[in-house]
Every structure is written in C-alpha cells, then in structure tokens.
Design goal:
It is a single chain. With 376 residues, this protein is an alpha/beta fold. It contains 11 helices and 19 strands.
C-alpha cells in the first residue's frame, strides 16, 4: 500500500510531443533538463522521442551524458557549462555544445582537440534576454573565430540559436524585435561562411503561437509535459502528465477556534474534521502554499489549513465524512475535478514550471504509466 506518490503518464508526454510535431514543419527538440521538469529525464526523453521529437535539450553536460549512459543516441544539445568544465567527454559522446562567448568557444575547441574529433557546436546570439549568448557587438568576433575553428577541423557549427524574452505574450513587440535581431545575426554569420543546418529560437510558447519563429527546429519544454506557458485556456491537444497525491494518515474532530499547524496561522471557524496529508515542503509542496494551496479530498477541493510543514499538510474538511486512507490529490490533469499545477501556481503566485519541477527531487516515489517499452 503506497502512502504518497507522483504519477507520470508517459503516454501524455508522447502524445503532447506528437501534437507539437503536427503543428510545425520544423524538427522538435524536447527539453528534458531538470530531471525532465520533475517527470524523470530518461523516461520523459524516451516518451518524447516516441512522439516524434528528433532532438533532446538539456542544461548541463552531466544531464546529456546521463542520456547517453541510458543508451539514448538522438542528438542532444547541452547549453550551460562554466569556464574550465571539461568538455572532452561531451565531444566524445557526440553531445552538441553551446558557445556564446569566445571563452566558451575556446573551451569547446580544447575539448575537441583532447577528444581527437570535431565538436558539434551551436552558436548563441543574445537577441535581448541579456542572459546567455553573444551581444550583437560581440557576435562578429564569435562567428569569425568559429569559422576559423571549423576550417581547422576543430568543430562543426551545427546551429545558431537564441531565446525569447516574452514569448508568453505572443503579440508583444519584443518578439518581433528579437526575430529581427536573430535574422541580422544569421546574416552576419553567413558573411563569415557560417550557414548552419539548424536555426532555432522558439520555446514552448513560440512553438504554440508563433510559426514565423519556427525556423528549422523548435525547443518546447513545458508544453511536452502538457502544461501551458500561456495565459488563458489550455491549448488543444495537450494534457498534463504529472499527478501528485497521498493517502490521509489520520482525521480528527476539533472544536471551533482550534489553531492548526505551526504558529497557529489558521484557526477553525467551527467544530470540524481535520485531515492530515503526508506531503510537505520536503517533498516539493511550496511552504508559501500555506493557507492557499488547493487539494482535492472527499469529492471537494479544499485549501491547506495553516502552514505547510516539512512532511505534512492539514486540510479542514468541515463535517464531510473523510477517513484515514482516502486519497488527497494536490494536482493532476484536472479531468477528475482535481486542481492542476497551473491552479497551484496561480494560488501561490508562481509558475507551473516550478510546481512540477519541485517534485522531481523529492523522496516521494515516482510511478510511471503508459508508453509501453519506454522504460525498458
């Protein structure tokens, strides 16, 4: 008998990717960084590939090498490596690497020479996010150096890429400004003989709403897990893949005015039944969900009563006949009346990305459904 679990529907991931593939003429890179946004990196990657993705995207080289270690041979791009991080293993494993500065390019070349083979590189242009990538002023020097390294046989420039600032607001003028800056960067690269096979800038939101940004490759992350980065209705064809739930450990009747949990930040309005649910911030429940987090129990959505503890939360169930052993669902696809990860995000003032990712490294067992053969 299980106590608490995170269930992941691999069929949902597969089908979400198939939906995204059907909506573009570009290839699809499924982003599986951060342990697959909490869903499990390797199972999510396999389900995404089964759905039609041809690429995988991760943040760190360690994540990419873990995919290779699991026997996944699809192209993988890793884009976040600090100066001096050894890149030889990535080159040897055929991992595509990012370079957005001359220093990063030099590290990639060094790794290629140690590996004795050309590195596969994606050059990043900063089109306005002011995060990774070369600024427009730095870009000519980067592409010139990359062209020389390519001529020397140290690397192959596979891609040129960037990242949107406000793609969750599809009509915002910033998106058009970035696309213009990206086009300018591609033109500069072409003058130095760099004409990559893959040009990519579209994340989940742009994949769903901006076909003019699709180029040769799109990089959906959140959307492959069935969650929307956009305000408004759930996009058609996407269904959330993660459900977090636990069995009530005990119930008790308490009088009106009873303080609940640490600091008595909640007091009962009348005599009521309290239900103890064995999930807390040690499992991924945000502590700032205290007094606001929604949970489905006994056929009704209830709000967490009092502070979220490390291992447990309390629900005020009134006079409903809730019993120990009943299942409390924090979030899921929403088809059974339960809250969604987006509902949780709205309740506590964050984004749905954070909600699901929090449960990835928790002590709660992750259980997989669907996608026959994906786990083998």
């Amino acid at each position: 008998m299980w106590q608490a679990e995170v269930r992941v529907d691999l069929d949902a991931i597969r089908d979400n990717v198939a939906t995204l593939c059907a909506g573009t003429s570009a290839e699809v890179m499924a982003v599986v960084k951060a342990d697959g946004y909490g869903h499990g990196m390797v199972p999510a990657a396999r389900a995404a590939l089964a759905g039609g993705a041809t690429w995988l995207g991760v943040a760190t080289l360690d994540e990419a090498l873990a995919l290779r270690g699991a026997g996944i041979t699809a192209p993988v791009l890793a884009w976040l490596h600090a100066p001096g991080v050894p890149l030889r293993g990535g080159v040897e494993a055929g991992v595509d690497l990012n370079a957005g500065t001359l220093l990063q390019l030099g590290d990639v070349v060094a790794g290629a020479r140690l590996a004795g083979r050309a590195a596969r590189v994606h050059l990043k242009i900063d089109t306005g996010l002011a995060r990774g990538g070369a600024t427009p002023a730095e870009w000519p020097a980067l592409v010139e150096a990359a062209a020389k390294a390519q001529a020397d046989g140290d690397l192959e420039v596979v891609g040129v890429w960037s990242h949107f600032v406000r793609s969750d607001e599809p009509e915002h003028e910033m998106n058009d400004q970035q696309l213009a800056a990206f086009a300018d960067a591609l033109a500069v690269a072409a003058r130095y003989g760099i004409e990559p096979r893959y040009r990519h800038i579209a994340n989940s939101a742009a994949t769903l709403t901006r076909p003019d940004a699709h180029y040769d490759l799109v990089r959906p992350g959140l959307a492959i897990y069935g969650l929307s980065p956009l305000a408004g209705p759930q996009p058609a064809g996407l269904r959330p893949a993660m459900t977090a739930r636990a069995r009530v450990t005990l119930t008790k009747r308490v009088p009106r005015g009873q303080g609940v949990s640490y600091g008595h930040a909640y007091h009962t309005a009348r005599e009521t039944t309290l239900a103890l649910v064995p999930l807390g911030y040690g499992d991924g429940v945000p502590r700032h969900a205290s007094n606001v987090g929604p949970v489905l129990l006994g056929g009704a959505v209830r709000t967490i009563a009092g502070r979220v503890c490390m291992d447990q939360i309390v629900l005020d169930c009134g006079d409903d006949p809730v019993q120990a052993g009943e299942v409390a669902t924090l979030f899921g696809p929403g088809t059974g009346g339960e809250p969604t990860a987006t509902d949780w995000a709205d309740a506590i003032g964050t984004i749905n990305y954070e909600i699901v990712t929090r449960f990835g490294g928790s002590r709660v067992p992750r259980v997989y459904d669907g996608a026959e053969g994906v786990l083998s």
